[in-house]
Amino acid sequence: MSNIENCTPQQLQRSFSLMKSLYNTNPAPSHAQRVDVLKQLKQNILHNEHEIYDAMKRDYGYRSEFDTLIADVLPSVAGINYAIKNLKKWMKPSKRHAGLMLAPSSVTVHYQPLGVVGVITPWNFPFYLALGPAAQALAAGNRVMIKMSEFTPNANAALRKVTKGLEEHIQIVEGEAEVGAAFSALPFDHLIFTGSSTVGKLVAKSAADNLTPITLELGGKSPTIIDKDIDINIAVDAVIVGKSVNSGQICVAPDYVFVPKQREREFINAFIQRYTEYHLNSEDSNTQTHIVSDRQYSRLMGFLEDAKAQGATIDAVKEIESDHGRRVYPHLISNLSSDMKILQEEIFGSILPILTYDDIEEVITYINDRPRPLALYIMSKNDQLINSFVTRTHSGGVAVNDTAMHVAADDAPFGGVGNSGMGHYHGYEGFLTFSKAKTVLRSSSWIPKNRFILKNRDFVFKTLRSLLLK
């Protein structure tokens, strides 16, 4: 069997049937079998590392090797290593308290592979967002089918090499929108989608026809809050990290920043000065990943034109140069009005709106009045303020004095809430997402408990009532 390039819906159905059949031949792979698959996958990644860098450069026009290393290669390998290290513990049935009603029976919970897991991958991090959930599904004992983005053909070809020799465990499929729709309509045992909220809703509707359980990793407008007393350089450096990786084409990038009104210009000037120092005056000045496509580039230019037409102030780290491809350095937008597109849509690029506040309660109200974001970032040393945002706002995750890095926490779940997604993966929680937690009650074969209950219903009723209804 081989991975399917330019897949048709009919080929897709045959591939799914084959993966289902393979699962049925071995529905409970051993710890050793799962580890062997994960180790081979890891070795394939390492063997094809430089091809991965080259593929991403070709798909983007230019993509920094640092971005591919930090956001695609390293987390893929780290996730596999973490699963291998902890898999024996995760697979072990857990003992549970049976309680007086069930005495002297025992209760355990077994973690059973679901079957065939579908993974729908976007274009921004095609390796990690394919292999991250795939590795966890494989660790849980499943077979995996991955639908790659049609916008990253070179990355898709590299991923086929990464999964070579593992085709009985992972199938890579490619195709346009028709194939994507057919993929989400397959009766998977679990389906995970990473992408926009708009497409996520369509995927969820399609999966609902089969009652397929689904994990949605979406996005949204993730806010950053700058406290009045924080060192501005610490705050700026954290925002630059989250906004510069992949040129902001990342679901957890800081989408907009709240700064105290009196510190607005200080923040803008510090951002431009420090970004220039890190990315333009460094020994390697070719660090800026391009925008992935003409369509995405035009969308960002539309944000800038709309803001400018409505009177916004635009401070660019560096002006756009038409002879440098789709390279867009950060543009900080201030003097905003609520009608501007950059305050209504997820930016997903290197544009950063700056909002100001007098009272921190304004910020909490603003965030809570809008769809729940995938991430929220707080730049502060005030524990009380930090706790206010953690407890009084909803988001997929929170980072304090940092941005985006919480995604790299292998031992913690990652996922959205509300409009930014549902469900989660990573770590033990990811293993559980792709497993069926099956309760097993075991009663003794030599103690006639049921016979006693049937013959002494009155006594059992009165005894249990007096002991348990307190």
Automatic annotation (TrEMBL):
GO terms for cellular component: cytoplasm. The keyword Oxidoreductase applies. One of its GO terms (biological process) is aldehyde metabolic process. Keywords: NAD, Oxidoreductase. Pfam families: Aldedh. The active site is at E217, C251. It comes from the Bacteria. Residues 3-440 form the Aldehyde dehydrogenase domain. One of its GO terms (molecular function) is aldehyde dehydrogenase (NAD+) activity. InterPro entries: Ald_DH/histidinol_DH (IPR016161), Ald_DH_C (IPR016163), Ald_DH_CS_GLU (IPR029510), Ald_DH_N (IPR016162), Aldehyde_DH_dom (IPR015590), Aldehyde_DH_NAD(P) (IPR012394). Belongs to the aldehyde dehydrogenase family. This is Aldehyde dehydrogenase.
